[in-house]
Every structure is written in structure tokens, then in C-alpha cells.
Amino acid sequence: MSLVELIARADARGLAGSGLACLDRCVPLLDGDDEVLRPLWAALADGAGEGPGWVRGLARVRDKLAGPDAEGEDEAVLLVRRMLAAAPDECSGAAIRAWADACSVASLRVHRLLDPATDAATGAADVRGEERAQDRAQDRAQDRTEGLSPLVVAELRRQVTVLEVLAGHGPAGLRRALEVSTEGRRVLRAVVSRRARGRG
Q1: pLDDT at 125
Q2: Does the pLDDT at position 64 exceed 50?
Q3: Is residue 148's pLDDT more than 90?
Q4: Residue 200 — very low, low, confident or very high, per pLDDT cuts 50/70/90?
């Protein structure tokens, strides 16, 4: 089943977990530590993101990851900030589905921008090209990996894995989803660190 199909069939917990996992893997871009999203994972484990736990956790996370004025930040950082800003107060209904889908697209875009195998000029053209945007939608719809950079392929597979374990194991799948997210976060943190050294 493709990533798009998995998102379409996911329940509220699966959608919240998928969106949260995408955000978790991208936290290094906001200088967040490995524990910053734990309150939100805990809220999902306690009640599928329903009730005050999710709302309080979201407020705490936003406070900790609040950054300077977005002016001057690059596209990858801005994408992650938007993911966090768009997180709904309730993990239900159309809002959580829209957020999960938007997080999926944004996270893939972040990984495409940061992949050292991607030529910078090609990446700039990719931002502007409607045809390439349609190609990215097809990547998700068909799990197509030909021509994608290694970092993007790995992220696509992680997103699929998270949705599959949450669909197949319910609340018990959150532990595995967190493990997959932690692995991806470590990879991206290393990429961000190399990128910073290259700019230094």
C-alpha cells in the first residue's frame, strides 16, 4: 500500500503519530533535543491525543522550539516551523488528517533539500517547478523511488513503516513508531551537523 493510501486509511491515532513522527525527525533543524517531543508522544499513548495532555504538550513544545523572526531562515527550517505551527489542538477530524498529510509532504521536502547528493541548482529549480511538485505527489502515491536521493528514499520508507505499525498494532505501535523516528532524527542531526560545518 502506498504512503498516500496509508494516510487515507489511518485512524486519528495513526494520523497524529505519523505527523508527530515527521516533526520529530526534523527537530534538529530547530535545535531541539531528543526529548523535546516526549510530552506529545506521551499524550498519544495516554489517549490518542485527546484531552488537555496534547494541548499542554503542544504549548510546551512550541515554547521550547520558539525561534527568532523567520526572516533569513532557509526553506528547510521554515518548513519545520510551519509543521509545528499547524499542529491541531485536537487529534481528530479533518484537521489531523490535513496536518498528517502536510507533515508528510514537508518532511520529504526537508530531506530533499538537505540531502548532500542533491545538486543545489537542481533543488532551486525543483522549488519553482509545478511539474516537479506533481512528481513529488506521485512519489508518495506510488512509493516511487527511482531518481530520488538516498535521504529522501529513507524518509519515504520511514513514513510508510510508521503508518503500518500504527495501523497494525494501535497504541502498542507507538513504541516502534518512536524508534523509527529516533533513528531518522539521528540521521538528520548528522546531516545538519555536516551542513553547519560546511558553512562554517
Answers
A1: 37
A2: yes
A3: no
A4: low
CA dihedral 190, 13, 98, 8 (to 10 degrees): 100
Contact 73, 113 (CB under 8 A): no
| Averaged pLDDT, 7-15 | 93
* Mean pLDDT of the region 174-188: 95
The C-alpha angle 196, 178, 156, rounded to 5 degrees, equals 65
**Average pLDDT of the residues in 159-187:** 93
CB count, 10 Å around CB of 101? 19
C-alpha cell at 156: 519515504
How far CA 126 is from CA of 118, 123, 129, 135, 190, in Å, comes to 11, 5, 5, 10, 24
Residue 121: C-alpha distances to residues 117, 126, 148, 156 (Å):
12, 9, 16, 23
Residue type for position 184: G
Rounded to two decimals, the pTM is 0.85
Task: State the SS3 of the chain.
Answer: CCHHHHHHHCCHHHHHHHHHHHHHHHHHHHCCCCCCCHHHHHHHHHHCCCCHHHHHHHHHHHHHCCCCCCCCCCHHHHHHHHHHHCCCCCCCHHHHHHHHHHHHHHHHHHHHHHCCCCCHHHHHHHHHCHHHHHHHHHHHHHCCCCCCCHHHHHHHHHHHHHHHHHHHHHHHHHHHHHHHHHHHHHHHHHHHHHHHHHHC
